[in-house]
Amino acid sequence: MFGVRRSCNKASAFGKVVRNISGASSARTPMPTSVSNASLNDAVPPKGSAVSLGNSKRDDSLYGTRPIYLDMQATTPTDPRVLDKMLEFYTGLYGNPHSSTHSYGWETEKEIEKARKYIADVIGADPKEIVFTSGATESNNMSVKGVARFYKKTKKHIITTQTEHKCLLESARRLQDDGFDITYLPVNEDGLVNLEQLEKSIRKDTCLVSVMAVNNEIGVIQPLEEIGRICRNHKVFFHTDAAQAFGKIPLDVNKLNIDLMSISSHKIYGPKGMGACYVRRRPRVRLDPIISGGGQERGLRSGTLATPLVAGFGEAARLAVQEYEYDTKYISRLSQKLMNGILSMEHTQLNGSKTSRYPGCLNISFAYVEGESLLMALKDIALSSGSACTSASLEPSYVLHALGADDALAHSSIRFGIGRFTTEQEIDYVIDAINQRVQFLRELSPLWEMVQEGIDLNSIEWSGH
Ligand SMILES: Cc1ncc(COP(=O)(O)O)c(C=O)c1O
Ligand code: FES
After folding, report:
1. Do 175 and 115 have their domain in common?
2. TM spans, by residue (predicted)?
């Protein structure tokens, strides 16, 4: 009886929402408690198990008892202010923004252009450089395939890294089938690319370097400024997948010499199925569009815009700027607390760079515990052991493997995602739960017993198979 459920605070699905954000030090309004009955919970009763999280104005009884949500890299809860904005487009503002002959079209178009500016402002871009898409997956496909196909007569080579998101890697693989050459750069132990190696891999026929900004599994921030400089010096376009970075770390496309950027709305408390691609105008980046049609979005992405989603995305971007300082301080503080609370246990380690990282994503390994068993033991907390799209396969993370983690370590790692609506009480609860359940599982482990007896596991000759 220690499940805690919550969702975004101060929610008013249909009314105007006001969040008191004055005073960055004030704790956020907690969400309601409810009780879960996860099976393993009976075996591992936590200390001080009754967690009271106060009252909420929102009735989410519709969804039953739910775990604490710490999977912010998979997606974020919609900010209620975003929903308020979107509702205008499902009711009054239903005009097609591309209808130029009447006011229904004009009024919607005006709102779309406002949203475009909010998004451009986050990254120091011109609104004309923002192309709306269905999300970062589409933007990654559009950038990588688009540039490669446009310049294919003279350039056949692309450089990327081994730790990119699957949608980028799969786009690159598809290009390989079409005769392009792809270099998949390894990363250092801290998850960062080696700049010298990157520069050495650039060839005369390289058209694009694609390196993600923040890694979705381990939260490390790649050295974007240095990569941008190298690319500009060699006159190669630089694309970055900023799905996990946009609105969360400072990004200026001009300062960083970024030519293309993939952005996702649902990682910043906006609607799902929505995103954008930043495409530089000067010097101009040319793309072969993936979707052809009426020529919307500068001819790069045809189709009538999903206006409620565009407006919601715009509002989420506006809020990302407005709340930036507060969110950053708040998330960093909770992250530090969670990290201290977990890493104080022996045989735990934080994966990826300790210094170049986004604090809202912590990836921690628990030696002598199997990751999937730990996830099962933590059913009252929604977590992931890797990226959402591969977690179903139970395969260990290719990202952790690229960092040189051995199989055991890769299998025993968990990602903790903290966001705008995470509460301090939830973090306290999670620290307690992790400590107890890890200890419980280790006590069941013969390896742990051997370690306790002082046996060096490396000295053991395991029977092969
Ligand atoms: C780094 C990265 N790139 C791309 C994506 C895909 O984004 P979307 O869901 O908007 O297509 C994600 C989301 O999982 C991501 O984390
Ligand atoms: S097979 Fe590589 S981690 Fe298990």
Report:
1. yes
2. none
Ligand 1: distance of its center to the CA of 219 in Å? 13
Same domain? For 158 and 61 the reply is no
Q: In angstroms, rounded to a whole number, what is the distance separating the alpha carbons of residues 461 and 221?
A: 39
Q: What are the tokens at 115?
A: 């949203």
Report the distance separating Cα 393 and Cα 387, nearest Å. 11
* 47-51, 125-129, 426-430: range with lowest mean pLDDT: 47-51
180-193 residue pLDDT tens: 999 999 999 999 99
Q: How far apart are CA 60 and CA 44, in angstroms?
A: 27
Whether 399 is in the pocket of ligand 2, judged by its Cβ within 6 Å, is no
From 255, 287, 322, the end of a domain falls on 322
Ligand number with the minimum distance to the CA of 411:
2
| ipTM (interface pTM) | 0.88
**Is position 73 within any domain?**
yes
* 21 is a domain residue: no
CATH of the domain at 362: 3.90.1150.10
pLDDT at 395: 64
Domain enclosing residue 129, as ranges: 81-322
* Nearest Cα residue to atom 2 of ligand 1: 243
Residue 443 beta carbon below 6 angstroms from any ligand 2 atom? no
User: Is 354 in the same domain as 386?
Assistant: yes
- In a domain? residue 338: yes
- 407 in contact with ligand 2, CB cutoff 6 A: yes
Residue 206: CA count within 13 A, CB half-sphere: 25
Ligand 1 pocket list (CB less than 6 A) = 73, 135-137, 165, 167, 212, 216, 241, 243-244, 264, 275, 388
Residue 389 belongs to a domain? yes
Give the number of the atom of ligand 2 that is nearest the alpha carbon of residue 406.
3
Which residues are marked as active site?
389
pTM metric for this prediction: 0.86
Residue of minimum CA distance from atom 15 in ligand 1: 243
Name the one residue in this structure whose structure tokens are 């969040």.
Answer: 19
Specify the range with the lowest mean pLDDT, choosing from 48-57, 331-340, 454-463. Answer: 48-57
How confident is the model over 10-44, as pLDDT tens digits? 333 333 333 333 333 334 444 333 333 333 344 34
**Atom 11 in ligand 1: which residue has the minimum CA distance?**
137
62 with 119, same domain: the answer is no
Residues 340 and 273 in one domain: no
At 274 the three-state DSSP class reads coil
Residue 395 alpha carbon to ligand 2 centre in Å: 7
Instruction: State which of 306, 322, 338 marks the end of a domain.
Output: 322
Query: How many Cβ atoms are within 10 Å of 36's Cβ, its own excluded?
Result: 17
State the total domains in the chain.
2
What is each CA distance from 60 to 65, 81, 380, in whole angstroms? Answer: 9, 17, 17
Lowest mean pLDDT among 121-125, 229-233, 249-253, 368-372: 368-372
Tens of pLDDT, residue by residue over 105-126, are 999 999 999 999 999 999 999 9
